[in-house]
Amino acid sequence: MVNGSQSGEGRSLVARHPAIGYLIFILLSFAAIEGILYLVLTIRLSPAEQIEDPLITSGSREMYRADGIPDPVAFRKEGERLYGPALIYHPYRWYAMPRDFAGTYHTTDHHGFRNGFLDNAAKGVAFFGGSTMYSTHTRREGAIPGLLRDALARSGREPINFGVGAYGTTAELMTLIEVSRDPSYPRIEIAVFFDGVNEVTRYVERLQDGADDAFYDAMGYPWVETRTALLRHLGATDPDVPTWPMSIWTARKIVDKLTAGDTSKKRSHALTEFGDSDYRMAAEHIRDIYFDNIADITALAMSKGIKPIFILQPTIFDLNEYSPREKAISDYYRHSVIDLGRLFIDSYRAIKADNRFHEYKVNDLTDAFMAPEKKGELFYDYCHVSSIGNRILANRIMTILGPQVP
To answer: Which helix (H) or strand (E) holds 127?
Structure first.
C-alpha cells in the first residue's frame, strides 16, 4: 500500500509546488514578449530603403549594380553603420565620421574623410559638401573628387574629399578652419563648396523638432545624429535606441509619446498648415544663413590664399523630364508633412534672385540634369545620384575649375 508521502514524491515539482509553475509561466511569457518586441523593433528600426514603393526600390537596386555594387544591401548597411553607430562627436563641426574606417565599400582617412592616398607634394583642390559630395550611393572612385583625380593630376593637383553626410555651409566653415591648418593634407589652393540640399533639409528638421532657440537663426540647425554622437561621447544611452528589457523601454516610449502628444500634434498641424507666407519666410531664412556662411568662408579662404568656388547643387525637383520612378520619388517628398519640393524650389529661387548670388559668383548647376543632357535614371532619392550623374557634375565642375587649373 502506497502512503501519502510516497504518492507526493511521484508528482512533478510543479504539481507539488504550484507557485513554481506560476513563476515559470510568468518568466516564459516575459521572455516571449521580449522576443516579440525585439523582432518588431529590429524590423521597424533596421536600416531600409527610405521609400518602400517597389517601383523605387527595385530601380535603385539596378542602379547600384550598374555602379559595380553587387550587394546593395551590404553596401547600404555598411554606410549606415558609418553614419550611425560609428559616428563620433566633434566639438566644432557637430560630428565626424570614424577615423581609419576600413569597410568593403567605404573607407576613411586619419581624420574620418573619404580619402585614400594623397600626394602632399601636389596642390590641393578641396571639395566640401554633404552626402552628395561624399557620395553615399557610390564607391569612392565614383564620387566627384574621385572622378576628377586624373584630370586634376595632369596639372599637379590632388582632389581632397571633405564631404560629410548632412553637412551644410555652417559645418563646412568649421571644417575649412580645421583642415586648412592641418599639415597632413596637401596645401589647399582651391576650395569647392557644393551646397543647397542640406541648407534646406536642416531647416525642415528644425521645424519638425520645434527648435525655436535664437542661435539657430544665426548658424542653422545640426543634424539629428549629432545628439546620438554626443550621447555616445558622454557614455550615455540614446533614449531612441531600444534597450533591454524591451518591455520597459517600450512602455517608457509610450508614456513619452502620450505626454508629448499635444505638442507633437500641434507641431504636425502647424507643418501641414504651412502656407504661402510660411514657405516664403522659410526660403528667406535659408537664403540668409547660406549667404552669411559663404561670406565668412570667402573671408577666411582669401586670408589663407585659398580660392573659394561656390556651387548650387541640383535636386530631383529641378528636372524638366521625369521617368515614372523619378516622378514617384518626387511625389513622395512633395506629399510628406511639408512639401519638400516646393521648399527647395522657393529657397533656390530666393538664393538665385539675391544680389549676393552674383557677388560671390555662385555657380548654378541646378540645370545639370535637364534633358537632353540627362540620359536614363540618375537619382536614388531627391538628391543622391549614381556615378553617371556624378560624372555629369564632375565635367561641369571641371569646366568651372578650368581657368584655375591650366
So the answer is: strand 123-129
The residue behind cell 568593403 is 104
Q: How far apart are CA 152 and CA 111, in angstroms?
A: 23
C-alpha cell at 282: 522659410
φ/ψ of 358, rounded to 5, equals: -85, -35
Q: What is the pLDDT along the chain (406 residues), one digit of tens a residue?
A: 455 555 555 667 667 778 887 888 888 888 888 778 776 666 554 544 444 555 556 678 889 999 999 998 899 889 989 998 899 999 999 999 999 999 999 999 999 999 999 999 999 999 999 999 999 999 999 999 999 999 999 999 999 999 999 999 999 999 999 999 999 999 999 999 999 999 999 999 999 888 989 999 999 999 988 988 998 889 877 666 666 676 776 777 666 666 655 555 555 545 667 899 999 999 999 999 999 999 999 999 999 999 999 999 999 999 999 988 899 999 999 988 899 999 999 999 999 999 999 999 999 999 999 977 777 889 999 999 999 999 999 999 999 998 888 7
Q: What is the DSSP string of 226-239?
A: HHHHHHHHHTPPPT
Question: What's the rounded Cα separation, in Å, for the pair 119 and 125?
Answer: 12
Task: Say if CB 137 and CB 385 are below 8 A apart.
Answer: yes
**Residue 14: DSSP 8-state:** H
Task: Report the half-sphere exposure of 326 (CA within 13 A, side-chain side).
Answer: 20
DSSP code at position 316: G
Sequence-ordered list of residues with C-beta below 8 angstroms from that of 335, at least 6 positions apart, any chain: none
Q: Which position has the grid cell 578652419?
A: 177
Longest dimension (CA), the chain: 110
pTM: 0.85
Closest CA to 136 of 80, 60, 202, 216: 80
**Looking at the chain, how many residues does it have?**
406
Q: Is-contact 379 316, C-beta < 8 A?
A: yes
Running DSSP on this structure, what letter comes out for residue 102? B
Q: Using CA atoms, how far apart are residues 179 and 187, in angstroms rounded to an integer?
A: 9
Instruction: Return the residue matching grid coordinates 559595380.
Output: 68
**Phi, psi for residue 340 in degrees, rounded to 5:** -65, -35
d(CA 381, CA 17): 61
Helix 340-353 to helix 324-334 angle (10° resolution) is 90
Return d(Cα 83, Cα 88) in angstroms, integer. 9
